[in-house]
């Protein structure tokens, strides 16, 4: 299974992000049911004992629930790959605290340390050939996105299933945050 740990994006934030669909023509927009904020990518995990260790480690994490606010959109550009359009998340100490706890728990079960700096974001879509001027204008119009707070009460272990168009994400387990 191809696993990752993430926050699901509940209403009304998912609806607000869904409202951006179609606002930039060249984007291959992700469906709203796929919106999530990745806390840690685990990759392929086939060992049943490792799966049990991951579940146990995640179930022992204690962290408070918190509010999530969207911030400004951005773009990850990678050579020879479509650019990734995303919505940023406002700086939140509780979110970073949870992410560090998850990283520590995954190192303890024997998974390698993450190589990239944590940049909290929600993927909106991909752009095979972005038009720089149109994209810059769109990014400027969307920043910052105004929204009321979205309360995050759980984090989840997901399985990523490859699809023809977009991946499908299956929640394997939810882990509660403290009220």
UniProtKB/TrEMBL annotation:
<comment type="function">
    <text>Hydrolyzes RNA 2',3'-cyclic phosphodiester to an RNA 2'-phosphomonoester.</text>
</comment>
<feature type="active site" description="Proton acceptor">
    <location>
        <position position="121"/>
    </location>
</feature>
<dbReference type="GO" id="GO:0008664">
    <property type="term" value="F:RNA 2',3'-cyclic 3'-phosphodiesterase activity"/>
</dbReference>
<comment type="similarity">
    <text>Belongs to the 2H phosphoesterase superfamily. ThpR family.</text>
</comment>
<dbReference type="Pfam" id="PF02834">
    <property type="entry name" value="LigT_PEase"/>
</dbReference>
<feature type="domain" description="Phosphoesterase HXTX">
    <location>
        <begin position="93"/>
        <end position="169"/>
    </location>
</feature>
<dbReference type="InterPro" id="IPR004175">
    <property type="entry name" value="RNA_CPDase"/>
</dbReference>
<dbReference type="GO" id="GO:0004113">
    <property type="term" value="F:2',3'-cyclic-nucleotide 3'-phosphodiesterase activity"/>
</dbReference>
<feature type="short sequence motif" description="HXTX 1">
    <location>
        <begin position="36"/>
        <end position="39"/>
    </location>
</feature>
<feature type="short sequence motif" description="HXTX 2">
    <location>
        <begin position="121"/>
        <end position="124"/>
    </location>
</feature>
<dbReference type="InterPro" id="IPR009097">
    <property type="entry name" value="Cyclic_Pdiesterase"/>
</dbReference>
<dbReference type="InterPro" id="IPR014051">
    <property type="entry name" value="Phosphoesterase_HXTX"/>
</dbReference>
<feature type="active site" description="Proton donor">
    <location>
        <position position="36"/>
    </location>
</feature>
<feature type="domain" description="Phosphoesterase HXTX">
    <location>
        <begin position="8"/>
        <end position="86"/>
    </location>
</feature>
<protein>
    <recommendedName>
        <fullName>RNA 2',3'-cyclic phosphodiesterase</fullName>
        <ecNumber>3.1.4.58</ecNumber>
    </recommendedName>
</protein>
<keyword id="KW-0378">Hydrolase</keyword>
């Amino acid at each position: 299974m191809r696993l990752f740990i993430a926050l699901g994006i509940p209403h009304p934030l998912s609806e607000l992000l869904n409202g951006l669909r179609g606002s930039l023509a060249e984007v291959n927009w992700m469906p709203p049911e796929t919106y999530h904020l990745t806390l840690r990518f685990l990759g392929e995990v086939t060992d049943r004992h490792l799966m049990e260790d991951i579940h146990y480690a995640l179930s022992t994490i204690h962290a408070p629930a918190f509010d999530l606010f969207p911030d400004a959109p951005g773009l990850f550009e990678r050579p020879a790959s479509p650019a990734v359009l995303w919505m940023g998340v406002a700086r939140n100490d509780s979110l970073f605290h949870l992410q560090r706890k998850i990283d520590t728990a995954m190192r303890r079960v024997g998974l390698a340390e993450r190589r990239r700096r944590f940049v909290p974001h929600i993927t909106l879509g991909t752009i095979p050939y972005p038009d720089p001027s149109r994209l810059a204008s769109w990014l400027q119009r969307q920043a910052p996105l105004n929204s009321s707070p979205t309360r995050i009460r759980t984090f989840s272990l997901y399985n990523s299933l490859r699809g023809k168009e977009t991946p499908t994400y299956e929640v394997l387990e939810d882990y509660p945050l403290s009220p």
